[in-house]
Amino acid sequence: MIRFILADLRRLWAGAVVVVLLVTLATALGVTVTLQERALRLGSARAADKFDLVIGAAGSETQLVLSSIFLQPAPLPLMPGEVLAKLSKDPRVAWVAPVGFGDSFAGYPLVGTTRALIGSTVSGFAEGRMFEKEGEAVVGAAVKLPVGAEIKPMHGTAQMGGETHAGVVYHVTGKLPPTGTPWDRAILVPIQAVWHVHGLGRDHGHEEEEQHHEGEVAAADHPDEDHDHHGAIDADAPIDENFTADAPGLPAVLVKPKTIADAYKLRQEYRNGNTLAVFPGEVLTSLYATLGDARMVLSAVAAGSQGLVAAALVLVTVTHIGQRRRQIGALRAFGAPRLSVFAIVWLELFLLVAAGIGLGFLTGLAAARLIANAFTVKSGIILPVGFTGEDWRMALILLGASAVLSAVPAILAYRQSPAAALRA
User: Exposed/middle/buried for 14, CB within 10 Å: 0-12, 13-18, 19+?
Assistant: First the structure.
C-alpha cells in the first residue's frame, strides 16, 4: 500500500507540491501571529519586571511607561524637582532614580540617571566600573562601544536633524551585562550631567530651568526650529545624588517601594492633579488587551484562509477521485478490498496535509524569530519565541481536522462499484 501511494505521489508530484505549499502557507500565518503576540507579551513583561512604580507629571500613562521603561523617545511634561527630593527622603522608598533623556549618540539613547538605579537592577559589570564623575558613562550590553571610548552627545537624533553638543564629551567606564531590555541599548550618564548639558541646575531659577528644558525637549521633536543649546559639564566633578527641592524639573522617576503596601500608598498619594503614578504592569495589561484584539483579527484571517484552503482541497480531491475512477475500479477488480481502497485514498491526502501542517509550524516559527530578531535590534527587548503546550494541542487539532477532511474523498472511493468504474 505504501509503495502504491509513493508511486502515485511521484506520478502526480506537481499537484502534491501545490497541496503541501497551500497548507504550509495557511498554517504558517496563524502560527506566526500566535508566537509573535505571545513573545511580545512575555518580552515586554520581563523588560518592566524590575521597575515597580513610575511617577511623572500628569499626562498619558502609556507614554510615561513607554518613555521611562522602554526608552521610546517622546516629549513628556516635566514635574517639579521637589518630587524627587521628597521621594528620596521617604521612608517607604528603598531607592528612587530620576531619568532624563533627549540626547543620543550613534543611534543609542543617552539616559541620565543615578548609580542607585544601575546598582539595583543589574548584578555587577561585564567590563569596567560604575561612573564616578560627571564626565563618565556606563553603556548597555548591546552598545557597540568599548570601555574608554569617547561619547559626544547629540541633541535628539541624527534622523531628526539634531546637533552635537559642542565641547561635551563622556568617557565610557563600564559595560553592563545583558538584561534583555531596552536598557541594553542605552548609554547611562549621571543625571546631573544631563541637567548641566542643557543649562539646568546651576545658574537658572527654578521656573526658568523648567521652561528651558521643555524647550530643549521640543527641539528634539522639531529640529527645524531655532533653539539655543547651551550648557557644559565639568568632566572631573564628583557626582552629587543628594537631591534637594530646587532640583530641575524631570520627566519621570523610577521608584522601588519597600513593601507592596508602600507601593499602593505611594501610587495613591502621587496620583493627583500635578503628578501621575502608575504600575508598569497595569499599563502593559491594557496594551496586551489591545494586542489580544489585534491577534483575534489576524487569527480570524488565518482561520479563514485555512478554511478556504480546506474547501479548495476537498473540491480538487473530489474531482481527482472522479478522474481516477478507472484506476480505483481496476484495484477492486484485481481483488483489493473496499477498506484498502479507502485507506489508500485517505492516507495519500492525509500525508500531504500533515506534511503541510508540519512545514507550516516550522515556517511560522522561523518567521516569528526573524520578526523578533528585527524587533530586538531596534528596541533591545528580547522576545522569547518558542512553542508551548498550547501550540502542540493546536497541531493535534489541525491533524484531527485533516484526518476528517481526508475521509471525504476516501468515502467516495469506497462507495464506487468496480463494474461501474471500469465501464466509465
Answer: exposed
> Which residue has 543649562 as its cell numbers?
199
Q: Which amino acid, residue 82?
A: E
- The residues, any chain, with a CB within 8 Å of residue 365's CB and separated by 6 or more, are 31, 35, 385, 386, 387
Report the SS3 class of residue 112.
strand
Buried b (16+ CB within 10 A) or exposed e, 36-66: bbbbbbbbbebbbebbbbbbbbeebbebbbb
- Which uninterrupted H or E stretch holds 300? helix 280-323
- What is the spatial distance between Cα 419 and Cα 108, in angstroms, rounded to a whole number? 78
Range list of β-strands (E), 245-402:
252-257, 275-278
Please name the residue ranges forming H helices in 380-424: 389-415, 418-423
Label residue 380 exposed, middle or buried (CB < 10 Å: 0-12, 13-18, 19+): buried
Grid look-up 553603556 returns: 139
Question: What's the whole-model pTM score?
Answer: 0.73
Q: Tens of pLDDT along the chain (424 residues)?
A: 566 556 566 666 677 788 888 888 888 988 998 898 889 888 888 888 889 999 999 888 889 998 889 888 778 888 988 999 999 999 999 999 999 887 888 889 999 999 999 998 888 899 999 999 999 999 999 999 999 999 988 876 655 556 777 778 899 999 999 988 899 999 999 999 888 887 776 544 334 444 444 444 433 444 344 444 457 778 888 988 888 888 888 899 999 999 999 999 999 999 887 899 999 988 888 877 776 666 677 777 777 777 777 777 766 666 655 555 555 555 555 555 666 767 777 887 888 888 888 999 999 999 999 999 998 888 788 889 999 988 899 889 888 888 888 787 767 666 665 555 545 5
